[in-house]
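Hello forum,

I keep getting stuck at the same step: I have a sequence, I want structure tokens, and every attempt I make locally crashes halfway through. Rather than fight my setup again tonight, could one of you with a working pipeline run this one for me? It's a single chain of 386 residues.
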Amino acid sequence: MMKLGWWIGSIVMLTGLSESAIAVSPSSNRTQFFSEQYQFNESRSPQEALQIAHYDPEVMEELNREIRQNPNNAEAYHQRGLLWIHVEDYQKAVADFSAEIRINPNSAQGYNFRGTALFWLEQYDAALADYNQVLKLDPTSAIAYFNRGYIFRHKSEISNAIADFQQGARLAQNQGETQQYQEASAIIADLEAIATLNPPEILKRGQEKAQNADYIGAIADFNYIIQQNPENVAAYSNRGSAQMALGNDQSAIADLNRALAINPRYAEAYHQRGNVYADTNRLSEALADLNQALAINPRYAEAYYDRGRLYAQRDRPDLALQDYTQAIALDPTLAEAYYQRGFARYERQDTQGAIADLQQAATLFQTQNNLLRYRQTLSYLNSIQR
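Reply #2:
Ran it on my machine without issues. Output:
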């Protein structure tokens, strides 16, 4: 029987707390596959193991083979469940962690990571039940307190969330996890501050979190507003945008539908719903929503830009070029519009126009500290100018 002697590594939360299940950022960089053969009895550092878990399809095949040969190997199910989390197949992750728990009912980590998958499936009550079980099995698990705190925060149970993060912080401090303690303390301060803020301030805070890619934190703020005022159209619209960023398309559409039911002339909701439809290949509905957003607000630069992208996707380059140009006229700082117009011009063999647009895009990306897009734009510029 093969011994599974390796460790996939820490799950990293969006907030930075390590080894936690809730706020996993599954969309990590997956840029290459490792080619070396992995042996289960090899010793790996956590980072090496994490990279292999992300990139080597042979690891999955080894786990599949092990489970076929030894269907009661709880560790094999656990490791495969972690892989399913990394590739964002949460239904399969739930199935594997459930199999692990069936074989080993006292597996705190099995419950912990099944809670991860359930969270991403938006099955919050089930996830909460799993974290409760973790704490029955291991009352010293700081991570389980953090994870349960995230569930309470999502459900706007602020006092329960604060209590769990405080207990997790105490345990982390006692266990020498200084970084976890500091990050938990920051979350506690964020939770405690909500009682001192009015709804517009909470909305602004949520928007700032979303801009910084803390979508879970943003949704928690929007949830709190909606709980206090179920007719707050801006909270629904912003929550829909954050849900879209997390890939929760159906929840995003539901929120944006609700926003439009409250205010049928809310241009931002049409814009965001159009983007969700575009991402899910419902292109006719996407175009209708973007058209409606612009009919309500003809000076909506981002809606012109997104409609331009949609026209490009539908192979209508002339209309795409017109919309990029209009977006730039309304907002000369819209770097992405210059970037996309540069490609549209290059496809029309307007090389000089393309170079000018990409140079401007690069300047704006650099000024806006978007270094990834800055480097990408420079790379494209170099290839065009050769």
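The two ends are 57 Å apart (CA to CA). If your local run keeps crashing, start a new thread with the error log.
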